[in-house]
Amino acid sequence: MATTLTEEILSAARGGEPQSLREVYESLAPSILAYLIGKGCDDPEALCQEVFLTLFGKLKNLTGGISGLRTFAFSVAHARMVDDVRRRERQPVLAQFDPQADARLSSSAEETVLGSGPGVAAMLDGLPARQKEVLLLRVVADLSIEEAAKIMGSTAGAVKQLQTRALRTLKDRMEREEVPDHERIA
């Protein structure tokens, strides 16, 4: 279960206190991992770990409290995602995932975060890249408009417009497809 960050926890983490560092990780990792999964990264778990290696290395110098920490963490996650896309463009992956060969007994992180069937992931797949990015940052990562705008290198007004358009597109699609209420995005 995710820990609710407080300024006290953040202060202790800046001092290198192990339990506080763990609480920072447990608080931010699920939404960072969901963001990286939603962006289609090849190995989101590894990228999430890279985000925290960077974050913990810079923790002492971060400003802006918890909001500054979240913004920085998602800025790093965004940068790692861009690096992943560039790497894949230079060196495409030749092997495809075979679900029949997956011997895990429990649900994968992807299944847990995105659910099964044609849920959130399928709905987001049809959106333009910038609209998808806004929804991942605003809904999945639970960032403010200002934080999302900073990460995307955009203005708060542009983020609001992108989010409105994306939500309208999803609403229209759900109405056309008559998606059952239990699968709808709130």
Automatic annotation (TrEMBL):
Domain RNA polymerase sigma-70 region, residue spans: 42-90, 124-171
UniProt keywords, alphabetically: DNA-binding, Sigma factor, Transcription, Transcription regulation
Record's keyword annotation contains DNA-binding: yes
Upper lineage: Bacteria, Bacillati, Actinomycetota, Actinomycetes, Micrococcales
Pfam families: Sigma70_r2, Sigma70_r4
Protein's UniProt keywords contain Transcription: yes
Matches recorded under InterPro entries: RNA_pol_sigma-70-like (IPR039425), RNA_pol_sigma-70_dom (IPR014284), RNA_pol_sigma70_r2 (IPR007627), RNA_pol_sigma70_r4 (IPR007630), RNA_pol_sigma_r2 (IPR013325), RNA_pol_sigma_r3/r4-like (IPR013324), WH-like_DNA-bd_sf (IPR036388)
Organism: Arthrobacter gengyunqii
Residue runs in coiled coils: none
CDD domains for the chain: Sigma70_r4 (cd06171)
UniProt-recorded name of the protein: RNA polymerase sigma factor
Annotated Gene3D superfamilies: 1.10.1740.10, Winged helix-like DNA-binding domain superfamily/Winged helix DNA-binding domain
Family, similarity comment: Belongs to the sigma-70 factor family. ECF subfamily.
